[in-house]
Amino acid sequence: xxxxxxxxxxxxxxxxxxxxxxxxxxxxxxxxxxxxxxxxxxxxxxxxxxxxxxxxxxxxxxxxxxxxxxxxxxxxxxxxxxxxxxxxxxxxxxxxxxxxxxxxxxxxxxxxxxxxxxxxxxxxxxxxxxxxxxxxxxxxxxxxxxxxxxxxxxxxxxxxx
Length: 161
Hints:
alpha+beta
């Protein structure tokens, strides 16, 4: 069973600034610092932020479900501002999913405005179809919101100088 969920959020920064956060390892650092209720640790296991990079995400103890996951950067297009990441170990893969892919695309809207479109694609084994309810865009939407707030704070700090 295949599914897809999408979320879009307008950012009040140029696409290049948004990409500097969402298209790199920087978003992992921001998530670890600003979402301790969800993420205990985000570790770089392999790579430098390019295709093939592997991150290990450890969830905060006490949360329901898996304790963590490893994700691999499978596509990075710096021209089109598209990054794709797939879960390669743990997370939803432990619950019968055979694919759990996140695509982040930063779309230029104007000189000082952009949109981040987040897409979640998943496949789940037929015998585990009941677990489809676990596929949610909510956590990704929260990560994007945290990123937006981070960008806004840094933009305000730059304007003050």
